[in-house]
TrEMBL record:
EC nos: 2.1.1.177
Keyword Lipid biosynthesis carried by entry: no
Record-given protein name: Ribosomal RNA large subunit methyltransferase H
Taxonomic source organism: Spiroplasma floricola 23-6
Gene, per the UniProt record: rlmH
Subunit note: Homodimer.
Residues reported in the UniProt entry to bind S-adenosyl-L-methionine: 71, 103, 122-127
Length: 154
């Protein structure tokens, strides 16, 4: 199984330790790649949004055989067990290739969100992008542990 995580900017140094911790744990279960895009943040929100979405589209052209999931605050909320089920169900779909996208600080336009039916929310709270990455990675790791009926701390 391959998982690609598309996100903006580099991880800040204060988040690096837990970030690398979960990357190392996940890589024992799948082929994980983090694709970092430099966020365009020069000008008005709408033009920034368009440029950032264009950068995502460029990356997605290379990922035709991947099931795409957007992290979207307004989407369906997933429990850890549902994420485990999502990972398990996608193992045999499109070769088990999943791409998760964490948006830029201005979020996604309605038009961009409408292009993708698969969306995941971790709730209605707003989190810094560094923390969202860590939460997502932790949930992916937890999902693998759940789907393999392996022990995981609670």
């Amino acid at each position: 199984m391959k998982i690609k995580l598309i996100c903006f900017n580099k991880i800040n140094k204060e988040f690096k330790e837990p970030y690398e911790f979960y990357i190392n744990k996940i890589q024992k279960h799948c082929d994980l790649e983090i694709i970092e895009i430099n966020e365009f943040d020069h000008g008005d929100i709408k033009s920034n949004m368009i440029k950032n979405e264009q950068n995502i589209h460029l990356r997605l052209k290379e990922l035709k055989n991947f099931e795409i999931f957007l992290l979207d605050i307004n989407a369906k909320q997933y429990s850890s067990k549902q994420i485990a089920k999502l990972l398990e169900e996608n193992k045999n779909y499109k070769g088990g290739n999943i791409c998760l996208i964490i948006g830029p600080s201005d979020g996604f336009s309605k038009e961009f969100r409408n292009l993708y039916q698969n969306k995941i929310s971790f709730g209605l709270i707003t989190l810094p992008y560094n923390l969202v990455r860590i939460v997502l990675l932790e949930q992916i790791y937890r999902g693998f542990k759940i789907s393999k009926n392996q022990k995981y701390h609670k």
